Description:
Layout: E1 5-8, H1 12-18, E2 26-29, E3 42-45, H2 50-60, E4 65-68, H3 75-88, E5 92-95, E6 108-111, H4 114-120, E7 127-130, E8 148-152, E9 162-166, H5 173-183, E10 187-191, H6 200-208, E11 212-215, E12 225-227, H7 230-238
Parallel strand pairs: 1-2, 1-4, 2-3, 4-5, 5-12, 6-11, 7-8, 7-10, 8-9, 10-11
Amino acid sequence: MTARILLLGGTGDALAIARTLRPRHVYSLAGLGRVPADLACAVRVGGFGGAEGLARFLADENIALVVDATHPYAAQISANAARACAAAHVPYWALRRAPWQPQPGDDWRMVSGWAGLVEAIVPFARPLFTLGREPLAHLNEVPERQHWTIRCLEAHPGHARARIIDARGPFTVEGERALFTEARIDVVVSKNSGGAATEAKLAVARAMGLPVVMMQRPLLQDAQREFTSAQEAIDALANPI
């Protein structure tokens, strides 16, 4: 595509798309995690100042297309992007990764927010959180009878009742089984992110008979074109309709 693209990213799928972009295009990151240094396209780190700020950026930078490849749970970012594109009359495309579906033998317990999550893990002693950084804001709330293992992108010292693992997928079944066994995990807390990079934890939970407390996905904005994989988006950018 010859028009200038703004790719909203921060996921592995977004990085795969970014690796195909030429120098005139822009890859935008919120600032969490590592910033890739091997891309041909420009990389922008930081927020835009809401939908209004993003709309100004689109106009100032002559952006002709926005591709939203943010995390499925980044609902506010997606809402801002859709509003900004409508205001700036710029097409809005989005990568909407298919959610995981429960398989035979799965014990999924759906919750819609932090309060429901905390209630759901009351019977358990050693939960594994794979929600990103959100649990870090609640380390002072860990009950005395629980020990949390939290996996996210950020290093953090944790404390006596919370262990923080900074790691980025993809994760393997063998690696997840070793972690579950070593940390004596008895429940997994997860977002329904979809994709293969972090799905191994669900296979291991199934095999070990462990429940999964699953955060429901937020509703996301409709886009003019939607894709279920990075490759679909890459193909569309190479052959726009």
